[in-house]
Amino acid sequence: MNFESQITKISHLKTDCLAVPVFQSKYGDNPHLKTFPKAIADHIQALFKSDIVSGKGGDGYLLRVGEKHGFAYLYVAGVGKKGELEQDTIRKFGGNLASGLKGKKFKSVAVYIPELFKLNDDYSVVSQMAVEGLLLGSYELLKYKSDPSRKAMPSKVSFVLPDSWDKRKFNAGLKIGEIMAWGQNLSRDLIGHPSNYLTPVELANTAKSLARKYCFQCEVLTKARMKKLKMNCILAVNSGSTQPPQFIIMKYNGPGSKKDPVCLVGKGITFDSGGISLKKAQDMDQMKGDMGGAACVLASVAVAARLKLPVNLVGLIPATENLPSGSAYKPGDILTAMNGKTIEVLNTDAEGRLILADALSYSQRLKPAAIIDVATLTGASIVALGYVSSAMFTNDDKLRKLIMSGSKKSSEKTWELPLWKEYQEQIKSSIADIKNTGGRPAGSCTAAAFLNNFTANYPWAHLDIAAVDIVFDKGAYTPKGPSGYGVRLISEFLREWK
Length: 498
Fold this sequence. Notes:
Layout: E1 2-6, E2 17-22, H1 38-49, E3 60-64, E4 73-78, H2 87-101, E5 108-112, H3 123-137, E6 156-160, H4 167-192, H5 200-214, E7 217-221, H6 223-228, H7 232-238, E8 246-253, E9 262-266, E10 268-272, H8 292-307, E11 312-322, E12 334-336, E13 342-344, H9 352-363, E14 370-375, H10 380-385, E15 390-394, H11 397-410, E16 414-416, H12 422-426, E17 434-435, H13 443-452, E18 460-464, E19 470-471, E20 481-482, H14 487-496
Parallel strand pairs: 1-6, 2-4, 2-5, 5-6, 9-11, 9-14, 10-11, 13-17, 14-18, 15-16
Antiparallel strand pairs: 3-4, 7-8, 8-11, 12-13, 15-18, 19-20
Helix pairs in contact: 2-3, 3-4, 4-8, 5-8, 7-9, 8-14, 9-13, 11-14
């Protein structure tokens, strides 16, 4: 889809379809309809009076209105109550449009933006939200279909603005929204790929390809290099697989930035069987997505490069499979991490924290200003927060503030859980420094406490995204399947980072 804006009268439009947002109201009380040609306003009021449309968020109705108006179709989309209007309302409006227009074979659509959509006098936010919703809501993964034809979407979307709006500022948000949605959809693609396609090597090749295209650096450490660096935890997790591990290092240097980098670390288990501590067969297929953290980090670096953000950024991805075999690591093994800490393995299905231990240890070589790791780490986060929010842990007030701000702007929810010292006691081992599981109580907190042993007191935050990596119930712009969670949150965080 190509996006543009215009300031014109509805009666002057030449397009296939006009899309109009309407607020929830018993009698269709929408002030912006007063500026419409009477015939069009009457059509919309008739939909309200016949209870076909209520204006409730998610409502949508496509009506043929004939050729005489400059458009043959009218799409009326509910956006909820006026008093509850927020940024995500506009994003959901875009997603609603995507669902309503998909497969209709319109070449062009005009989208009316009412004055009430202006939030905090920031026109670019309105355009960013609308474009994100349209592109996220129209997402489909079709690579593995025998007929990969996508349902047609309009090739041109033109936003019709109120007379008083600053078109230049509005247009600035179009590109931001397009890149943000592209990043999340890239992450969705990566998570959706089956593990016989997306091996650790293929994940590394994807990072290299994006680096060439968007002008950032990418280096991949081989198994031999990992041995020299004593990344014994990654190598242990990999020991049951015939697929070689990859340690992906991406570096983006923002224009004019001379500051220490922000380091993003993403868990990259391209398939997790649980290893010797084998998972149940039910839903094991979903474990192709245990690299959701890696997908988030890879896409976030690419988004930063495309947006040319003035920040220095490093993305680290330890990538491997976790499989059982005669050579696999076992419960009871003792591992020595890259930073010298010894770890008693009680459960080989608690492998994510092991590969992150080496990656976090490596990150200290970069002397980062801050470290954020992203991982589908614990089922306990689902118990704590349901399928609504990621769990956030941090030792730094600045990170806490900016991550929560990024969460609010992106509507990707996160909630802070504690890093109390008692959780360190829970993971102490009698024969090693620490053990890789503290048992069922406070499972997300003890996993975060484990990771804290490898951060060397750098400003650090951990996002446990196990609860939000898959969408089970379709939303306005979140189709069922891989969510691509975290890309927009991290990207909004980076836009604010100074």
